[in-house]
Write a structure and sequence with these properties.
Elements: H1 3-20, H2 22-27, E1 35-36, H3 46-52, H4 62-71, H5 83-86, H6 88-92, E2 94-101, E3 106-107, E4 112-118, E5 123-128, E6 132-140, E7 142-146, E8 152-154, E9 159-162, E10 168-171, E11 177-184, E12 193-194
Parallel strand pairs: 2-3
Antiparallel strand pairs: 1-3, 2-4, 4-11, 5-10, 5-12, 6-9, 6-11, 7-8, 7-10
Helix pairs in contact: 1-4
Bound molecules: zinc ion.
Length: about 200
């Protein structure tokens, strides 16, 4: 499959996922200005791990999981953080790419849709960003943490909302996790930033 075909297939599956998940459909409309942008692939150490251990999907998420895995070798994977911030093990077993957004494989100014993966037993410390965010779990599971709210263990089809500038964190245990994340509001092209006191 060509990169272009793989990304169109992933986008179709993500659009259907958005339509089928009430929390996601309510969060933002599906963008109507998407245009494909050829972007050079950037590989990361996590890729073989993700292909080998993508986490369990649900019947509803299996198609999206498969489409994202098919697009993965063509994606411009990013790490955002430095080894000083998160450690080498984290950078070896995590990465994300922008399916749609200001700098995505599809360009839109209306929202940002990213795909991220973490291997087992990783801790993504408290971080924040201006846009509001909805996590949707495609496969695997993780513990989602927000200040002053109970931790939630989420699996395929579950969602979690993060407000503008609200610190949040994620921990994986005996499952990896593959997520589709959507941002809305100001600052779509920004990167998340670690809360300084949590960065060891
Ligand atoms: Zn976030």
């Amino acid at each position: 499959m060509t990169a272009r075909a793989a990304f169109h297939s992933a986008l179709d599956a993500a659009r259907d996922w958005h339509a089928a998940l009430p929390a996601m459909a309510a969060f933002t409309d599906w963008p109507d200005d998407l245009r494909y942008a050829a972007r050079a692939p950037v590989s990361r150490p996590v890729l073989p791990l993700m292909e080998r251990d993508p986490g369990h999907a649900s019947p509803q998420s299996a198609r999206l999981q498969a489409a994202l895995l098919a697009a993965a070798p063509h994606a411009e994977w990013r790490l955002t953080y430095t080894e000083e911030e998160v450690g080498r093990d984290f950078l070896n077993r995590f990465a994300w790419f922008e399916l749609a957004g200001p700098d995505g494989h599809f360009v839109t100014d209306q929202c940002r849709i990213t795909v991220a993966y973490w291997g087992r037993n990783l801790f993504y410390a408290r971080h924040w960003h201006e846009p509001e965010e909805l996590y949707t779990v495609v496969s695997g599971s993780g513990i989602f943490m927000v200040d002053n709210q109970p931790d939630l263990i989420l699996g395929p089809g579950d969602t979690r909302l993060h407000l503008s500038n609200q610190p949040h964190a994620l921990r994986t245990q005996n499952d990896p996790i593959l997520v589709l994340v959507i941002w809305r509001g100001a600052g779509l092209a920004d990167d998340p930033r670690m809360v300084p006191e949590d960065a060891s």
